[in-house]
């Protein structure tokens, strides 16, 4: 079997899908863990990692939450929540 290397974008999409599935199942403890991992990647990652977390992971998870009227944004760690708010403000023209 070939060792397949996934791009950072593909990994972020997969990570977002895992997080959304945990939200669907109501597994808040694991959701918090995923958000914490994303927070650490946002803080300590290189520019590419930070962009992928912000533009792919956070966008996917927050869009899912809004579409399903989920109110778990209070579970976002501080830096991830700040990035979420920044993203909302940028897309709304504020």
- Termini gap: 50 Å
User: Main β-sheet, in a few words?
Assistant: none
Order of helices and strands: HHHH
Strand content: under 5%
The low-confidence runs, each spanning 5 or more residues with pLDDT under 50, are: none
Coarse morphology: globular
Mean pLDDT: 87
Count of helix runs: 4
Number of strands: 0
Gyration radius over CA? 13 Å
**Structural class, from secondary structure content?**
mainly alpha
Describe this structure in words.
The protein is an all-alpha fold and 94 residues long. Helix content is 76%, strand content 0%. Helix 1 packs parallel to helix 3 (47-67) and helix 2 (28-44) packs antiparallel against helix 3 (47-67). It is globular, with a radius of gyration of 13 Å. The mean pLDDT is 87.
